[in-house]
Write a structure and sequence with these properties.
globular; Transcription Regulator spoIIAA; 5-stranded mixed β-barrel; two-stranded parallel sheet; OB fold (Dihydrolipoamide Acetyltransferase, E2P); 2 domains
């Protein structure tokens, strides 16, 4: 597993960055080797803002399409009490925020759906977060509870919160996986 930080994301996106070619080569080698590339939601928020501010929304969207990250989200800025950003001049109009948000999420939703479909037929270790009648709900490695998508699981035996089950992925939608337990 490779963790991608803000400097790595910026180097991948900015063709003028001194590390651009090295970063792209390293990511290509990792993908070819089947490595999972991860980052954190805080890094993505910081990176998205940096890319948009320095390179523009088009570059940020191009980065999303080229990077093919598993999990990405965004939000529209809202003032938070005490935040220095509240004092910045020329805030982005609500209509522009909404348009950018829609374009970003539409782009990422297509990527997410495609990447999750690629997991169909594979077996994944899944940590069980909650138990349901006939199964449970869990998440795969790198997924944050209450933020990222989930795995809806069917199981012949009762599951326990916190256990890790091997789940065969049967289907996928834009954000979630669906599967059945094959082992523990």
């Amino acid at each position: 597993m490779i963790f991608l930080d803000t400097s790595g994301i910026f180097a991948l996106a900015d063709s003028d960055d001194a590390m651009h070619h090295d970063a792209n080569r390293m990511i290509a080698v990792a993908k070819d080797a089947g490595e999972q590339i991860m980052t954190h939601s805080y890094v993505l928020v910081e990176s998205a803002a940096l890319l948009q501010n320095r390179l523009g929304l088009k570059i940020a969207l191009t980065f999303l399409e080229e990077a093919q990250l598993d999990r990405v989200g965004c939000f529209k800025f809202e003032p938070v009490r005490g935040a220095p950003a509240n004092e910045l001049d020329n805030p982005v109009p609500e209509e522009v925020k909404s348009q950018r948000y829609a374009r970003f999420m539409e782009t990422q939703q297509k990527i997410s759906a495609r990447r999750l479909r690629a997991k169909v037929g594979k077996r994944e270790p899944v940590i069980i977060d909650s138990v349901t009648q006939g199964g449970g709900i869990g998440r795969t490695r790198g997924d944050a509870p209450e933020i990222d998508g989930v795995v809806h699981i069917s199981s012949r035996r009762p599951l326990k919160v916190g256990e890790i089950a091997t789940v065969k992925i049967d289907s996928a939608d834009a954000y979630d996986l669906h599967g059945s337990v094959t082992g523990f």
